Structure formats: C-alpha cells, structure tokens
C-alpha cells in the first residue's frame, strides 16, 4: 500500500489537475471577503472578524468547492489508468484491482487533508491582507482543527460517488456534477435530523461548526447520527470497491496477449 501511495503522489507532480485543485481551494476565502464587501448592509456580517472569515470559508468549502474538487481529482487519478492504457501493465503484477483502487482513494484522502491545510493558510493570508481584525491563538487553533476535520469528512461524504464512477472509464465527470449538487443541496436542509444524517453536513456537526448564520437554524445537529452517517459512507465505499471488477478492456488485452503466445508456440512446433 505504501508503494501505491508513493507512486500516486509521484504521478500527481506531473498532473495539471493538482493546480486546478489549488486554485479551487484558494477561492473560498476570497469569495468570503468579496461577498462581505459587495453585500447590502442588511445581509452583511456586522462584525466580520477572523472568526467569521474562517466560518465563511469553511461553509463555502464544504458546500461548494470541496465536494467538486475532491471528486474531480480523485476521479481523474483513477480515470488516467483507463485513458493512458496502463491497467494492462498493472493488473498482471500481483496486485488486485480492488487494492489499486483502495490505494488511490487513500492517496486522495491524504491529499484532501493537505488541501484543507492549504485552504487554511490561504484564509490566514487573505485575512491579513484584507486588514481583518480579531486574530488570536484560540481562533487559529479552532479554525485549523475545523477545516482539517471538515475536509476529511467532506471527502468521506463523496467517497461513494468517486468509487461508483471509477467502475467505468470516462464517467468521473458525471460524478463531479453529482457532487456539486450533493454539496449545494445541503444549504436547503433545515430539519435537525436530516442535517445530522446528510453526509455533507455531518462533518460540520462532528466538528461542532455553527451553522446558525448560514442556515438560519438554532438547534445543533445530533452528533451520534452524524458519526453514523459518515461510517455508513465509508462502509458503502468499501462494498462498492470490493464488488468492482477489473475493466473488460484490460482483461481482453491480457487474453489476446496470452492467446498470441500460444499461437507463436504452436507455429514454432510446426
């Protein structure tokens, strides 16, 4: 598994998709400041300090940017094996297709945490450049803990989408669209039980993120239901990957190669 992880990160250095991810994770903080600047006095946050900036960045990330970016990069990493026609070289090696998928998904999980850390750094820089006040050690620690936790939980929430779309080549872009709708729809869920069970919002509940400002709700989500929701998404992903078979194209290539070897041997016998 360590070799798979190392290989995936070496591949990422050559892919431009990582740059798209970095750009995407830069936008939540910038969008938070821009929205505050152009909003009407009735809708602006009265005391837009660093705490409000971190909260707004986390909300924008969890409901819009993270689901799309994580699904895009994760799906791309898997789809490249189809488009580059490298599966026919990987599958004959003593490694199962399921193990390969698990390795890629785990690599994307690590990357999601790193992207969350990057978003945290960008938020800090944007806040300082914008002259926002209210920075303290407590806010820095809380913001870091929440954004890393929510980036991990958001990735878990979209894992089944990535796993399903990895079963066929070229399908991952459809998964990106589904993840966008999956995240955007979270904004309209008001019921406390539904908020606790909805995977995108479950991470917010687990990390004790205050959604009152963004969803006009006062009752916090139920921690037990949120943890259960994320656990179900993990279990569902494991089941999907275990039931995923190697693509037929790779199997056919291997069969043709084997048939060719027998044919050449038969010709030599003649």
Provide a concise account of the structure shown.
It is built from twelve helices and no strands.
Gyration radius, to the nearest Å? 22 Å
What is the number of helices? 12
Helix/strand order: HHHHHHHHHHHH
Mean pLDDT: 83
Task: Bin the helical content.
Answer: over 70%
Cα end-to-end separation: 46 Å
Secondary structural class = mainly alpha
Give the low-confidence spans.
249-270
Estimated share of beta-strand residues: under 5%
Largest sheet: none
How many DSSP E strands? 0
Structural shape? globular
Please describe what this structure looks like:
- This protein has 270 residues and is mainly α.
- It is 76% helix and 0% strand.
- It has helices at residues 2-12, 17-38, 50-83, 87-90, 97-129, 137-165, 172-184, 192-197, 199-206, 212-215, 223-242, 248-269.
- The radius of gyration is 22 Å and the shape is globular.
Name its key features.
mainly alpha; disordered C terminus; 270 residues; globular
Topology, pairings included?
Blueprint (H helix, E strand, L loop, with lengths): L1 H11 L4 H22 L11 H34 L3 H4 L6 H33 L7 H29 L6 H13 L7 H6 L1 H8 L5 H4 L7 H20 L5 H22 L1
Helix pairs in contact: 1-5, 2-3, 2-5, 3-5, 3-6, 3-7, 5-6, 6-7, 6-9, 6-11, 9-11
